[in-house]
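hey
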């Protein structure tokens, strides 16, 4: 989105567990729609939102559709800035090994596959959020 030559930066905060409410799925759908309009998007996962990115989710027992594999497509939508709060992972006994490997193909580097998932501390995450023009929390 441009306004008088200024690109707007949009941050989508994900703080809820992936299932039990509609927040996680709604956030993912909004992000994919926004990406179709070439917005500068950052995704943040903090608190119970870190569970949205865990590997091998099984929703058979709760009767809900497992949408977690959709996160692997974010790179195809040019979403390259996905941040996970380090302290939220630690507080839940999780490590980066528990998370999906999210990548994108860098067309400027002969389509090399690169990480789009970054684990950052609260202080750094606060700076990232403060740099955004719009922050939406789910």
């Amino acid at each position: 989105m441009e306004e008088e030559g200024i690109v707007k930066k949009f941050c989508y905060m994900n703080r809820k567990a992936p299932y039990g409410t509609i927040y996680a799925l709604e956030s993912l759908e909004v992000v994919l729609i926004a990406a179709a309009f070439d917005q500068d998007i950052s995704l943040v996962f903090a608190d119970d939102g870190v569970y949205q990115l865990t590997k091998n989710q099984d929703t058979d027992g709760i009767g809900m559709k497992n949408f977690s594999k959709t996160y692997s497509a974010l790179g195809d939508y040019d979403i390259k800035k996905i941040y996970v709060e380090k302290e939220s992972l630690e507080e839940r006994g999780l490590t980066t090994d528990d998370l999906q490997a999210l990548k994108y193909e860098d067309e400027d580097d002969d389509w090399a596959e690169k990480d789009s998932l970054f684990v950052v501390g609260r202080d750094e995450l606060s700076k990232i959020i403060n740099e955004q023009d719009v922050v939406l929390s789910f």
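The longest strand covers residues 9-14. The beta strands are 2-3, 6-7, 9-14, 40-45, 81-85, 103-106, 112-115, 117-120, 134-137.
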